[in-house]
Design a protein that fits this description.
By secondary structure, the protein is mainly beta. The chain has one helix at 2-12; strands at 14-19, 25-35, 49-54, 65-68, 74-85, 88-98, 101-112, 118-143, 146-158, 167-172, 175-185, 192-199. The strands form 2 sheets. The protein has a 6-stranded antiparallel beta barrel with strand order 1-2-3-6-5-4. It has a 6-stranded antiparallel beta barrel with strand order 7-8-9-12-11-10. The radius of gyration is 20 Å and the shape is elongated. The N and C termini lie far apart (61 Å).
């Protein structure tokens, strides 16, 4: 059973690179990749779900990114579990979501001049990070200058050093639009951060 499963993955699988959040290739291998059901991730759109199977000896973890070499597609590993028969581990099964954005994240460092004027200087944390982004809502909000559009998104990324009120730029139709991080969920998925971001209103 072990040899058969391994042969199927290596013979029928697609060539992939498994990379970290910095873009470093951890290893190259083959993986069986297919559509996944929605029962595990009800909050994520079904069309972005994938399931992949890897040979058992590879160190596949949540938060790693799978790059499919023939198509150039990128997938974020959201969950892993072992397929076991008897006492043998046959494969590592992963649940993935397709990355649909590349984000720039930066922190805003505040400084003051001699007159007390406050300046915010953006300092990059990461640029070009693959992410899955899902819209959560949008409305018109009354601010002092008048009505302004307010958008909210959830951004799924590997765990990195991000804090509330850091700034994130999303690629929307080829234009990078700034948003601010409102809260961070590090509990729902081990190795994954979910950033709730909203339209940047700071100047």
């Amino acid at each position: 059973m072990f040899d058969t499963k391994r042969e199927i993955i290596l013979d029928e699988g697609l060539p992939v690179d498994v990379i970290d959040w910095q873009g470093n290739t951890l290893f190259s291998t083959k993986a069986l990749l297919g559509k996944a059901t929605k029962q595990f991730f009800s909050e994520i759109s079904l069309e972005y779900h994938r399931k992949a199977q890897f040979v058992p000896e590879l160190d596949v973890k949540n938060g790693q990114i799978v790059r499919v070499i023939p198509t150039g597609e990128h997938y974020l590993i959201m969950a892993t579990y072992n397929e076991v028969f008897g006492t043998e581990k046959l494969a590592t099964i992963t649940r993935l979501v397709e990355c649909n954005n590349e984000v720039l994240i930066q922190t805003l460092v505040e400084t003051a001049d001699d007159d007390g004027n406050i300046y915010r200087t953006p300092t990059p944390i990461v640029n070009g990070l693959k992410a899955y982004v899902e819209m959560k809502g949008g409305d018109l909000v009354q601010y002092k200058p008048g009505l302004q559009s307010r958008l909210e998104f959830d951004v799924y990324i590997p765990v990195i050093d991000v804090e509330v009120l850091d700034q994130i730029h999303l690629n929307i139709n080829g234009k990078f639009v700034p948003f601010k991080v409102e809260y961070i969920d590090e509990l729902s998925f081990q190795g994954i951060m979910i950033l709730r971001v909203s339209t940047e209103t700071r100047r």
